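agent: user wants the structure for Major facilitator transporter from Marinobacter santoriniensis NKSG1. delegating to structure tool.
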Amino acid sequence: MTIGKRKTMILAGFIGNVVEWYDFAVYGYMAGILAALFFPGEDSVASLIATYGVFAAGFIMRPLGSGVFGWLGDTIGRSRTMLISVTMMVLPTFLLGCLPTYHQAGLLAPVLLVIIRMVQGLSVGGEFSSSVTYLVETAPDKRRGMAGSWANTGSIFGMLLGAAMAALVTSWMDSGSVHDWGWRLPFLFGGVIGLISIMLRRHLPRSEHFQRHHDERCNTSPLLEAFTTNRRETLLAVIFASAYGVLFYLPIVYLPEWLHSETGMPLHLALQINTLATAILLVLIPVSGWLGDHLIRRTHFIAGAMLCLAITGWPLYLWLVSDSILAAVVVQLLLITFIAVPLGSAPAMFVELFPARDRLSGYSVAYNLGLGVIGGTTPMISTWLIDVTGVSTAPALYLVVMAVIAFVALLFIPDRSREVLR
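agent: tool returned. relaying tokens verbatim.
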């Protein structure tokens, strides 16, 4: 395989995840504006709740999408599944930018919005795991970790790009223009990025690894095999993905709001620190993937990071309560350094865990159940813990417990980072 062809394949896997997380970030950041446009009413809080409800609807479709796209990927191939999943994300994103508002179309507007978000949620259930599986299967044996890391790098880049685009529109345009037509621009721009992704994926070669094992496979359901023949692997993947999801959402998504509400730090400052840390994370993720390929065995590397989180999680949060900007910066950087390890190395580990015949079904379902369902509830559970215990650092206990669970799960996950892919 030529270097140019390999770079195209990596870019195709990377940019699909950029589109996925760009769209979800833009929707989240523009929620207040969308609430007024699609769910107008005297109660602004109720309108915002309805808007976030639509956002949640996308996540509810995620487990269903994981089953559908996992089965497709193990049946018709990874590259075709990647094309379908990104198309199902791109077209609705573009259409969202063209939607009529409630004042233009009445009840039809929010109904169309719900349909669009549900279609996108379905595609999200298959995008990440499909692209990771393809990237890892088509990579040389000593570069699987680095190859798989580009999917998470794309996700983080998409989040940053979505935040930047939303900030650009809302800061450079007056409020009236944003509500009239400016809100459409980020979604239309997402459609343009997505078109590039579709073009890159149209002619991707099929995974030879998939093709070889697919021709030899028995006529059984790959999704069924994931829960019968390979139920141990699926269970371990669900447990680790659940802990991994919580450990991702706490420092990346929830921490800025926690700093604002519990220490009184201005929200804009907390977000600036978070943005800086997230930008550094972009660099650390592929570095982690490379280290897992060449210097440290993947499961050992991730287990070490989980142990560090378990030991330092509580002291770091205690330091944060000191209301020091220096503490906020240092703690955020330390947390993202630890979490960069699984973000960079775990994608390849998940792929190596499952046999080729039902790899995408097992990985996709386990990952989305863990990260999407358990990880996605992290802000809610963290807030509930503070309310129930009356202790502002209660989320640190949640972090420590999940780090320990991840560490224990890794003790039972075989390390295949130096073996030929099954």
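agent: one observation worth passing along. The chain has two domains: 1-217, 221-421.
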